[in-house]
Design a protein that fits this description.
This protein is of the alpha/beta class. 35% of the residues lie in helices and 17% in strands. It is built from 11 helices and 13 strands. A 6-stranded mixed sheet has the order 4-5-13-10-11-12, with helices on both faces. Strands 8-7-6-9 form a 4-stranded parallel sheet, with helices on both faces. Helix 3 links the parallel strand 6 and strand 7. The longest helix is centred in the middle third of the chain and has 16 residues. The protein binds pyridoxal-5'-phosphate and zinc ion. Pyridoxal-5'-phosphate binds next to helix 3 and helix 7.
């Protein structure tokens, strides 16, 4: 474990990592864990394959996480998800297509990776009560890990969150509040009450450690593709933790000499009814304005304003990727298409990437023969109401 400090992603101010805290005390932007990777001799290129022999879980990357050795992780068996070749869909488009299937995580989504680590760190640093605004899957994951850790969980969700997510949170013991509004309204409610209630706020990118758990998505695809990153990554984007976490992992792997300076072209996929990153990308903006009248049935993409907007936009531009919006009815149709061709019951957010893939291929932004990784971030089983 070689973490040295936390650093603000905007102004660079250093913060102590062994302290329960949220945003930069100088500018209110997200904090990232910084590692002293030069001193990590046993992590050099020769040793990168030694991780393969370990148990397939997030925790096998422990040297790359701020993980004090004497404390046991709060685990439900997260991470180590399969990277599956999608030969039929890929064949139809003349590309080499792979799906990173995050739906097999505990609580059926990639939110498990961020939350297992964030809940663990919050407990280690002294939190007793946790709160999170959630479009669905983050709440379920936080509630489950909080139960496992013996901490109190408070989940604020928009009233139109899929029923399965709401029920899941309750059944694993969380206090659930339904709000007439969007995830941003839920976040505002937590911000208003957290001091008085003694809640630690686990909102996306408003504490430094969810991103460390999400970083393992990037470590895993590198390892699964034998340390050669794909040409293109498609990621269904709300708050952007996976996108930002993966990019951080790529940089850390390069510093360790595990990979070179090549990067995939990263594409954010959003819903036409809530596409703040797409609008800002197209307009050449550094930050994304709040998306007006946000709506989409892909609840994980219903994020009209994200604190990590500038980080996402930098990644999309530096990687020479882009951002693309797709309609809800296209996503829902794509679920059955992918399901019947590949045997995967994907979440609408994952399905959105398959729609985007077709469009990017048709417009020539993805070339014939290129290797593409799509993130299926969750399971269709949580969204049964959409398929009646
Ligand atoms: C299934 C699913 N996919 C994608 C997202 C968006 O993830 P992020 O906020 O990391 O961009 C979410 C967020 O709730 C989700 O539940
Ligand atoms: Zn700052």
């Amino acid at each position: 474990m070689s973490v040295s400090h936390l650093e603000c992603a905007a102004c660079g101010k250093r913060h102590e990592w062994r302290q329960l805290q949220n945003l930069c005390t100088a500018c209110g932007k997200p904090l990232f864990a910084i590692y002293d990777l030069g001193s990590a001799v046993k992590l050099d290129r020769k040793n990168r394959s030694s991780f393969q022999g370990r148990e397939k879980s997030l925790w096998r990357w422990c040297e790359l996480l701020p993980l004090p050795e004497d404390v046991k992780p709060v685990s439900l068996g997260e991470g180590g998800t399969p990277l599956l070749q999608a030969k039929r869909v890929g064949g139809d488009l003349d590309i080499d297509l792979w799906v990173k299937d995050e739906s097999v995580n505990p609580t059926q989504s990639f939110k498990a990776c961020g939350m297992s680590f964030a809940v663990w760190m919050a407990k280690y640093l002294g939190a007793k009560k946790l709160a999170v605004p959630s479009a669905g899957n983050a709440g379920g994951a936080m509630a489950a890990y909080a139960a496992r850790a013996g901490l109190e969980a408070h989940v604020f969700m928009p009233r139109d969150t899929p029923r399965a997510n709401i029920i899941e949170c309750r059944e694993v013991g969380a206090h659930v509040r339904l709000i007439d509004g969007l995830i941003t309204d839920c976040g505002a409610e937590i911000a208003k009450r957290k001091e008085k209630e003694g809640w630690f706020d686990l909102s996306t990118l408003k504490e430094p450690y969810r991103i460390e758990g999400k970083k393992t998505l990037g470590l895993e695809i590198a390892e699964q593709l034998d340390w050669k990153l794909p040409d293109v990554v498609l990621y269904p984007t709300g708050g952007g933790t996976g996108l930002i976490g993966m990019w951080k992992a790529f940089d850390e792997m390069e510093k360790l000499g595990w990979i070179g300076n090549e990067r995939p072209r990263m594409f954010s996929v959003q819903a036409s009814g809530c596409a703040p990153i797409v609008s800002a990308f197209e307009a050449g903006e550094k930050f994304a304005a709040e998306f007006p009248n946000a709506h989409t049935t892909a609840s994980g993409l219903r994020v009209p304003k994200a604190i990590g907007d500038f980080l996402m936009l930098d990644i999309l531009r530096n990687s020479k990727g882009g951002a693309i919006a797709v309609d809800d009815d296209e996503m829902i149709r794509a679920v059955r298409d992918v399901g019947s061709k590949e045997g995967l019951f994907v979440a609408p957010e994952g399905a959105a990437c398959f729609v985007a893939l077709k469009k990017l291929r048709a417009s020539g932004k993805i070339d014939r023969g290129e290797q593409v990784v799509i993130f299926n971030t969750g399971s269709g089983i949580k969204y049964l109401d959409l398929f009646e």
